[in-house]
Amino acid sequence: MKILLIEDEKKLADSISAFLIRDGYIVETVNDFEQGIIRAAINEYDCLLIDIMLPDGSGLDIVKELKKIKSNAGILIISAKDSLDDKIIGLDLGADDYVTKPFHLAELNARIKSVLRRKKFGGLDQVEYQEITINTRSGEVRVHEKMVDLTKKEYQLLLFFLSNPDRMVTKEAIAEHLWGDYIIDVDSFDFIYAHIKNLRKKMRGAGGRDYIKTVYGLGYKFTDH
Known about the structure:
The chain is α/β, with parallel strands linked by helices. It is about 45% helix and about 25% strand.
């Protein structure tokens, strides 16, 4: 999952980023309004964490811009202000949740996961596709009720496919989702082939069907057709 963190307190931003990266997220961090609104407008993210009080502008204006361009990203506002008015304004503009400083990083992570569940899977803790069941809270994956042990990248890859069923996704989109923008410039996507091969092997080993179809020269489609 790819996150943009817009936070001007560098020490806090570094702490949040390190914590989320350890949990398997791809995190990009900017420290001011100008860079935040540029990144938010031109790149795709699963979730944005936006501080309201930025040195050169208001995070609420970034929320407005995201809604103007019809972004599908989850939006979580961060602010030192424990103000009901700010919460109401942010949520009315289209933010999905609101946390007030100081907060525990584990709580922030839980709220991010809740936002992502609502955005991608209708708020469900359990996602089902044919014989596949994923608990998005615990990260458990089962095929025919049999537990499947996936790496973090394999788990994220499976969730990415399940959030885009019957859609062709390019190798570039997979790489960007799992490794961030910088990976787009690589000459070879062998690492993607390796992760898909391993995911297929583990799912079939548990008795599942192979739903990952190769669209030659373009990418992949997760489908039961």
